[in-house]
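Let us practice reading a record.
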Amino acid sequence: MTSDDPGRATADLESASDFARVEDGFERLWTPHRMAYIEGVRPTEEAGDGCPFCAAPLRSDIEGLIVARGELCFVVMNLFPYNPGHLLICPYRHVPLYVDLTDEETTEFTAMTKTALAALTRTSAPMGFNIGMNQGRVAGAGVAAHLHQHVVPRWGGDSNFLPIIGQTKALPLLLEDVRTRLAEVWPA
Protein backbone atom coordinates (compact mmCIF):
# COMPACT_ATOMS: atom_id res chain seq x y z
CA MET A 1 0.00 0.00 0.00
CA THR A 2 1.15 3.50 -0.76
CA SER A 3 -0.33 6.76 0.20
CA ASP A 4 -0.35 10.29 -1.11
CA ASP A 5 -2.36 11.22 1.92
CA PRO A 6 -1.02 9.82 5.19
CA GLY A 7 -4.59 9.25 6.35
CA ARG A 8 -5.47 7.06 3.30
CA ALA A 9 -3.75 3.99 1.98
CA THR A 10 -4.17 3.07 -1.68
CA ALA A 11 -3.12 -0.07 -3.49
CA ASP A 12 -0.38 0.09 -6.10
CA LEU A 13 -2.02 -0.79 -9.39
CA GLU A 14 -0.10 -2.46 -12.16
CA SER A 15 -0.90 -1.77 -15.76
CA ALA A 16 -2.44 -4.60 -17.78
CA SER A 17 0.28 -3.99 -20.37
CA ASP A 18 2.81 -5.13 -17.75
CA PHE A 19 1.40 -8.63 -18.21
CA ALA A 20 1.45 -8.78 -22.01
CA ARG A 21 3.22 -11.89 -23.26
CA VAL A 22 3.72 -13.21 -19.73
CA GLU A 23 3.19 -16.97 -19.44
CA ASP A 24 0.27 -17.66 -17.14
CA GLY A 25 -0.59 -21.28 -17.98
CA PHE A 26 -3.70 -20.42 -19.99
CA GLU A 27 -4.20 -21.23 -23.65
CA ARG A 28 -5.93 -18.57 -25.69
CA LEU A 29 -8.57 -19.20 -28.33
CA TRP A 30 -8.31 -16.23 -30.69
CA THR A 31 -11.46 -15.57 -32.71
CA PRO A 32 -11.15 -11.99 -33.99
CA HIS A 33 -13.89 -12.56 -36.59
CA ARG A 34 -16.42 -12.65 -33.74
CA MET A 35 -15.86 -8.97 -32.89
CA ALA A 36 -18.59 -8.01 -35.36
CA TYR A 37 -20.99 -10.16 -33.34
CA ILE A 38 -19.74 -8.87 -29.98
CA GLU A 39 -19.94 -5.24 -31.09
CA GLY A 40 -23.52 -5.73 -32.18
CA VAL A 41 -22.97 -5.24 -35.91
CA ARG A 42 -26.15 -6.59 -37.42
CA PRO A 43 -26.84 -7.15 -41.10
CA THR A 44 -29.49 -5.08 -42.78
CA GLU A 45 -32.78 -6.58 -43.86
CA GLU A 46 -32.33 -4.98 -47.27
CA ALA A 47 -30.66 -6.62 -50.23
CA GLY A 48 -27.20 -5.31 -51.09
CA ASP A 49 -23.84 -4.77 -49.40
CA GLY A 50 -25.35 -4.74 -45.88
CA CYS A 51 -26.62 -8.30 -46.32
CA PRO A 52 -23.76 -10.78 -45.87
CA PHE A 53 -25.39 -13.27 -48.25
CA CYS A 54 -25.77 -10.66 -50.98
CA ALA A 55 -22.22 -9.37 -50.44
CA ALA A 56 -20.36 -12.71 -50.24
CA PRO A 57 -20.83 -13.75 -53.90
CA LEU A 58 -19.50 -10.36 -55.04
CA ARG A 59 -16.12 -11.22 -53.50
CA SER A 60 -13.57 -13.81 -54.58
CA ASP A 61 -14.22 -17.31 -53.26
CA ILE A 62 -11.42 -16.95 -50.73
CA GLU A 63 -12.49 -13.49 -49.48
CA GLY A 64 -16.19 -14.42 -49.42
CA LEU A 65 -15.53 -17.87 -47.91
CA ILE A 66 -17.47 -19.35 -50.84
CA VAL A 67 -17.11 -23.13 -51.17
CA ALA A 68 -19.14 -23.54 -54.37
CA ARG A 69 -21.21 -21.46 -56.78
CA GLY A 70 -24.17 -22.69 -58.74
CA GLU A 71 -26.36 -20.92 -61.23
CA LEU A 72 -29.02 -19.92 -58.68
CA CYS A 73 -27.49 -20.78 -55.29
CA PHE A 74 -24.11 -20.87 -53.56
CA VAL A 75 -22.45 -22.48 -50.54
CA VAL A 76 -20.55 -20.37 -48.00
CA MET A 77 -18.77 -21.05 -44.72
CA ASN A 78 -20.62 -19.85 -41.64
CA LEU A 79 -18.59 -16.99 -40.17
CA PHE A 80 -19.78 -18.02 -36.67
CA PRO A 81 -19.60 -21.83 -36.95
CA TYR A 82 -20.97 -24.31 -34.45
CA ASN A 83 -18.43 -26.86 -35.71
CA PRO A 84 -15.68 -26.95 -38.33
CA GLY A 85 -17.31 -27.26 -41.73
CA HIS A 86 -20.52 -25.45 -40.77
CA LEU A 87 -21.91 -24.49 -44.18
CA LEU A 88 -24.75 -22.29 -45.38
CA ILE A 89 -26.65 -22.93 -48.59
CA CYS A 90 -28.03 -19.65 -49.96
CA PRO A 91 -29.93 -18.52 -53.03
CA TYR A 92 -28.36 -15.54 -54.79
CA ARG A 93 -31.78 -13.93 -54.76
CA HIS A 94 -32.58 -12.01 -51.56
CA VAL A 95 -35.71 -13.81 -50.33
CA PRO A 96 -36.66 -14.55 -46.72
CA LEU A 97 -38.63 -17.79 -46.90
CA TYR A 98 -38.21 -21.25 -48.38
CA VAL A 99 -41.61 -20.93 -50.08
CA ASP A 100 -40.27 -17.84 -51.91
CA LEU A 101 -37.82 -19.97 -53.92
CA THR A 102 -38.69 -20.80 -57.50
CA ASP A 103 -38.88 -24.48 -58.44
CA GLU A 104 -35.48 -24.15 -60.15
CA GLU A 105 -33.93 -22.53 -57.06
CA THR A 106 -35.43 -25.24 -54.84
CA THR A 107 -33.93 -27.96 -57.03
CA GLU A 108 -30.44 -26.43 -56.94
CA PHE A 109 -30.74 -25.60 -53.22
CA THR A 110 -31.52 -29.26 -52.48
CA ALA A 111 -28.79 -30.58 -54.79
CA MET A 112 -26.22 -28.31 -53.14
CA THR A 113 -27.30 -29.55 -49.71
CA LYS A 114 -26.75 -33.15 -50.81
CA THR A 115 -23.36 -32.27 -52.30
CA ALA A 116 -22.40 -30.46 -49.09
CA LEU A 117 -23.08 -33.64 -47.10
CA ALA A 118 -20.93 -35.66 -49.51
CA ALA A 119 -18.08 -33.11 -49.45
CA LEU A 120 -18.09 -32.90 -45.66
CA THR A 121 -18.12 -36.69 -45.41
CA ARG A 122 -15.09 -36.90 -47.73
CA THR A 123 -13.09 -34.22 -45.93
CA SER A 124 -13.89 -34.81 -42.27
CA ALA A 125 -15.93 -38.01 -41.79
CA PRO A 126 -18.59 -36.59 -39.44
CA MET A 127 -20.72 -39.03 -37.49
CA GLY A 128 -23.91 -37.10 -38.28
CA PHE A 129 -25.34 -33.78 -39.44
CA ASN A 130 -27.74 -31.07 -38.36
CA ILE A 131 -29.54 -29.58 -41.35
CA GLY A 132 -32.06 -26.80 -40.97
CA MET A 133 -33.37 -23.30 -41.50
CA ASN A 134 -34.53 -20.68 -39.04
CA GLN A 135 -37.12 -18.56 -40.84
CA GLY A 136 -37.90 -15.25 -39.18
CA ARG A 137 -36.14 -13.50 -36.32
CA VAL A 138 -38.39 -15.11 -33.69
CA ALA A 139 -37.34 -18.53 -35.01
CA GLY A 140 -33.68 -17.66 -34.44
CA ALA A 141 -32.62 -16.44 -37.88
CA GLY A 142 -29.62 -14.14 -37.55
CA VAL A 143 -30.16 -12.89 -41.10
CA ALA A 144 -33.91 -13.28 -41.44
CA ALA A 145 -34.28 -11.45 -44.74
CA HIS A 146 -32.04 -13.75 -46.81
CA LEU A 147 -32.89 -17.44 -46.74
CA HIS A 148 -30.06 -19.77 -45.80
CA GLN A 149 -29.88 -23.38 -44.73
CA HIS A 150 -27.39 -24.61 -42.15
CA VAL A 151 -25.45 -27.83 -42.68
CA VAL A 152 -23.53 -28.65 -39.50
CA PRO A 153 -21.28 -31.71 -39.29
CA ARG A 154 -21.39 -33.47 -35.93
CA TRP A 155 -19.06 -35.84 -34.06
CA GLY A 156 -19.47 -37.68 -30.80
CA GLY A 157 -18.25 -35.45 -27.99
CA ASP A 158 -18.27 -32.26 -30.07
CA SER A 159 -20.53 -30.61 -27.50
CA ASN A 160 -18.65 -30.11 -24.27
CA PHE A 161 -18.66 -27.67 -21.38
CA LEU A 162 -16.90 -24.82 -23.22
CA PRO A 163 -19.96 -23.36 -24.98
CA ILE A 164 -22.13 -23.68 -21.89
CA ILE A 165 -19.75 -22.63 -19.12
CA GLY A 166 -17.17 -20.53 -20.93
CA GLN A 167 -19.26 -19.25 -23.85
CA THR A 168 -16.32 -20.40 -25.99
CA LYS A 169 -16.22 -22.68 -28.99
CA ALA A 170 -13.00 -24.58 -29.67
CA LEU A 171 -12.58 -25.04 -33.41
CA PRO A 172 -9.53 -27.03 -34.49
CA LEU A 173 -9.39 -25.63 -38.05
CA LEU A 174 -9.43 -22.12 -39.48
CA LEU A 175 -12.39 -21.20 -41.69
CA GLU A 176 -10.09 -20.66 -44.65
CA ASP A 177 -8.55 -24.13 -44.28
CA VAL A 178 -11.94 -25.82 -44.10
CA ARG A 179 -13.17 -23.82 -47.12
CA THR A 180 -10.13 -24.89 -49.15
CA ARG A 181 -10.58 -28.57 -48.26
CA LEU A 182 -14.26 -28.51 -49.20
CA ALA A 183 -13.74 -26.54 -52.41
CA GLU A 184 -11.10 -29.05 -53.52
CA VAL A 185 -13.52 -32.01 -53.32
CA TRP A 186 -16.64 -30.17 -54.55
CA PRO A 187 -17.66 -31.55 -57.96
CA ALA A 188 -17.17 -29.10 -60.82
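A brief commentary: The mean pLDDT is 82.
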